[in-house]
Design a protein that fits this description.
The chain is an alpha+beta fold. It is about 35% helix and about 20% strand. The protein has 14 helices and 14 strands.
Length: about 325
Amino acid sequence: MTQVVLQPSGNKGSREHYRNTIDELVDLAAHRDLLGEALFQHLISLFPSGQAPMWGVTPGQGDRNRASWQKIELGASALFAADKQIFSRGMIAAVFHNPPLARRLWGIDENGATWEYMYALDSVEEVNIPYAAFNAAVGYKSNNIIQGFTVLSEEKSVAFLQTFPASAVRVEWPATPDEVEEARRNLDGDLERRVEAWQRAEQSVLREALLRGLATGECALCGRVMDSRILVAAHIKKRSCCTDSEKRDITNIGMLNCKFGCDELYERGFVSIDENWSMIVAPSLTDDTALAYVMDTMHTSIAPRPASAKYFAWHRQHHNFE
């Protein structure tokens, strides 16, 4: 898909909405009454964990936003922007009009409107793309500010995606030695400075701490030893929900997960680790192939990590294991 949607979300209300329905996800079962059975079943088929990131826009002056929303194509990339940079992106997996659900999730604005033109997202990832880099990619003036919900033209969408292709890998590697050293210095400062190299390098510091320079590593969830390039340096607790001190807790916040299935299952909340260090499986995981992978390949328990217990507890609570 070569369509890009711009979604400014820099004001206080938008930040709160982002935390409540993208960072924290929407429990589909809790809103089944307003989704309706057909849409509920469709969303469950897209999000088997029972939780989905959601966003919406108001009709806008003269129904401007509604007209743009009607142009959205499934699979489009939605870019969330604030503070002169694009800070996250996701793939639009479903589009639906639902004023009652929007009012329940977000209330109404000062004009009595609600964010009723909605969409659900998949593969949401943190990015750090300054406006200047975005403007250069799509051909805008260097001082252009992203304002207003916008569906980019095909030409500009293609230009952006060619410059910033979507990535299914949550940790970029390798960083340069200079970037790693810069990240080490900046771990003592403000971790929310949105500079792309520092973000990538911070992630690389986590990876370096877990691999200790080795060319191979062990997946924490299945125990298989493999090439380090096939391992993801994952946050046990979602990074965007960590405090600064938790992000700096390099020794305990991360674990190595393999790309063959363990990372995806953990990231989406299909499996977790209980207080006794045993693997637990979400009831929503019903796919036979995935269940066979869990039963045949993944550990039934992991080695105790007391200093990481609070992060695993967050993961269980966040994904409704307790």
